[in-house]
Amino acid sequence: MTRYETLYDSPLGDMLLVANGDALTGVYFSHQKYFPHEGDTRRDGADLAVLHDAKRQLDEYFHEGRRTFDLALAADGTPFQQRVWAELQRIPFGETRSYGDLAHALGDLNKSRAVGAANGRNPIAIIVPCHRVIGADGTLTGYASGVERKLALLSLEGAALAPIMGAAVAATRRTRLSAPANLAFDF
């Protein structure tokens, strides 16, 4: 398979953007878990329309308050992973869900761990907002790109993070806090 790629300089560090020619197949922070396979044929995608659009929309997200993305996506995953990633895209900007919330939305509360595993394998960071998934107690849980980045993304979006005490109730609320427009990222 031929893969087109370009780098994007985000406020949270370098990102690798990957496409198949027509659709975005990956958005990866540098040094994150589950980077793309090395066996694919790699091509410079700096002039590819979908990668140019992805850079522009990511700039708007980080600097101008873009809330949704309008890009062709083609993530490679199992049917279950695809269902989880589709559910992630339903989480609105500035809101969070627990793994249990996602499992419930998918029709099986017993699949929270499987949802967590699929969430962690999401190849399209930010655009498929796996950073919006938190623990049932309202705490930040793992993030393939680092919990610091997850916190920065949720802060950028103004997501309300529940305190540990009373979080079981708070984690199901859909509240927002306002974040300063000039939020600085210092990693």
UniProtKB/TrEMBL annotation:
Entries under SUPFAM superfamilies matching the protein: Methylated DNA-protein cysteine methyltransferase domain (SSF53155), Methylated DNA-protein cysteine methyltransferase, C-terminal domain (SSF46767)
Methylated-DNA-[protein]-cysteine S-methyltransferase DNA binding domain: residues covered: 79-159
Enzyme class, spelled out: transferase
Localization, UniProt: Cytoplasm
Cellular component annotations (GO), alphabetically ordered: cytoplasm
Keywords assigned: Cytoplasm, DNA damage, DNA repair, Methyltransferase, Transferase
Domain Methylguanine DNA methyltransferase ribonuclease-like: 4-74
HAMAP family listed in its UniProt record: OGT
Other noteworthy facts: This enzyme catalyzes only one turnover and therefore is not strictly catalytic. According to one definition, an enzyme is a biocatalyst that acts repeatedly and over many reaction cycles.
Name the UniProt record assigns to this protein: Methylated-DNA--protein-cysteine methyltransferase
Record organism: Pandoraea eparura
Taxonomic classification: Bacteria, Pseudomonadati, Pseudomonadota, Betaproteobacteria, Burkholderiales
Gene name for this UniProt entry: ogt
